[in-house]
Amino acid sequence: MAMRPWQLTGDTGGVLIMDAVLESCRARNFALWPVAAPPAGRLLSLSGELSPHELGTAMAVLTSYNTDHRERRAIDPENSVDQVRRLVTTECVVAPGGLRIRDTITGVTAPPGCCFGLENWRDWLGLLDGAEPWLGHDPTPRVEHVGATIQLWPDENDREGLPISLPLSQLPELLESVQDQLIGFLASVEEWATQYVPPLATAVVAKLDEDLAIGRPLRR
Fold it and tell me: Is residue 153 in some structural domain?
């Protein structure tokens, strides 16, 4: 079986899979454009392979989550353009989610913790400098440096299970693959926006690219 671009062989002999994910809860009961049913675990993996309805889910989450509190108490937007304009005009896009990593041999998955946010995905680069970045809470992922390997515990409050062993040498390639996924997602957003919100298609792509730090080169 061929591995996808974001799959690498880990220390355990299993395949490490890292993907950019978005929490999909805010797409419930959304009606301004078609959305997909929530995925298992409620985390939607972003890439250029999303179906049109899955893209609708992602955009429903992003536009709903980035609505100013004062606007939430105001009249709901009447059309797709008004909804997406709120995303384009927000000060800085916040994307509930982050990076998820899985080991296919041990079956261990480390999802992003709450409040980390996909906009912070480049914080993982700090591991290359010996940092131990905060990755959210409830669950609270914990990283530890052990020589040339990162031990990633899905929840620091539960150490009875196995950690994910991530060789530091593989981290740049994994993050490059995440960037490729996000670039593919951005291209799909452009197609989606051209169909549903033509006046804002260019602006929404530029906003997501800038605030989620998608296109600019990775360090190293």
Answer: yes
Burial of 104 (0-12, 13-18, 19+ CB in 10 A): middle
CA gap 122, 131 in Å, rounded: 13
State the pairing for strand pair 43-45/97-103. Answer: unpaired
* Residue 2 identity (one-letter amino acid): A
**Separation in Å, CA 142 to CA 6, 94, 173, 176, 182:** 22, 22, 21, 22, 24
Domain range for 208: 1-212
Those residues with Cβ within 8 angstroms of residue 181's Cβ, 6 or more apart along the chain or in another chain: 6, 19, 20, 45, 46, 47, 48
Does the global pTM surpass 0.70? yes
> pLDDT, tens digit, for every residue of 162-192?
899 999 999 999 999 999 999 999 999 999 9
User: Is 176 part of any domain?
Assistant: yes
